[in-house]
Write a structure and sequence with these properties.
CATH class: Alpha Beta
Number of domains: 1
CATH topology: Hypothetical Cytosolic Protein, Chain: A
CATH architecture: 2-Layer Sandwich
Low-confidence stretches: none
Structural class: alpha+beta
Largest sheet: 3 strands, antiparallel
Strand content: 15-25%
Radius of gyration: 16 Å
Distance between the termini: 46 Å
Length: 95
């Protein structure tokens, strides 16, 4: 008998893993974190557990990092602009 397993997600604040449906989802729109109650908004989503919601709202300076969004200085949050940059880093510069 196969038991269905709920999808797991990680809270961006405390890094705790939990069932997807127990965490709040946020997306990055127009430079702001927007709650995604329907869990269907386009774009990169991050998940936050209920215990960390207050900390999430108190730390807006970390939102670009958590969402891997473009930072005000023009650099990408993830440090890589595209897949070719990722391949170049992985292969030691030979892309």
């Amino acid at each position: 008998m196969i038991v269905p397993v709920a999808p797991q997600r990680t809270c961006v604040v405390c890094r705790t893993r939990a069932d997807k449906w127990l965490l709040a989802r946020f997306t990055w729109q127009n430079g702001q974190a927007v709650a995604d109650g329907g869990r269907q908004a386009a774009g990169r989503g991050v998940y936050v557990c209920r215990e960390c919601l207050d900390m999430f709202y108190r730390r807006p300076e970390r939102w670009p990092r958590w969402f891997k969004a473009a930072r005000p200085n023009g650099k990408e949050g993830a440090g890589m602009k595209n897949k070719q940059d990722a391949a170049a880093r992985r292969d030691g510069g030979a892309a």
